[in-house]
Write the structure tokens for this entry.
Amino acid sequence: MKRLLPLFGLAASLPLFLLAAAHYPGGNDRDPVAPGFRFTENYVSALFQPLAINGMENAARPYAVPAILLLGVSMAYMFWAVSRTTEARGTRKTIEIFGIGTAVYTVLGVNTPMHDLLVVIAAVFYAIAALAMLRLLHGAQRGWAVALGVLSLGCLAALAAMRHAGFYPALAPITEWTLFALAALWLAGVYYARTAPAVPASAAKDSGAPR
């Protein structure tokens, strides 16, 4: 049961994010007076500001803050737990330090005035942690996990190009939300697979024996 707690925390953050989006007064970078929240036009950070872009008090914040805290704590624990599944010290420390750092800087980034700097740091930390996880997963020959991890890194690279190089900037908000979802889904899947209780050799042998 304890093993499932971070997965429950991750799942619990989803309805809170949806509630936050439903309570967002309105406004986005393209249209400051647009009503409500649009995943294709609003960045994640819009849910956390004291005032919405349209100038109204942001009613999304009371839901968004616990959502990101649940997400951050759950992801930090899962990064740590995944790091414990390898004996390679360099890989273990890289996943642990940069994975937990990703969660911490993400939570701080959406809740402080230093948003731009902290989000960049979180992105760099995630890239480093993800590369270490890909090395771990490649050695374990988990093709689905490697593919999903590469996809999340591709999404991160695309978002960086959109935000900082002006490459299709209108797609940046939905790409950011997609990255959040992919990263959380990938980490949850890897965590669940890597922390599965080991089957004793004797039990595995007995289960395959004819009866």
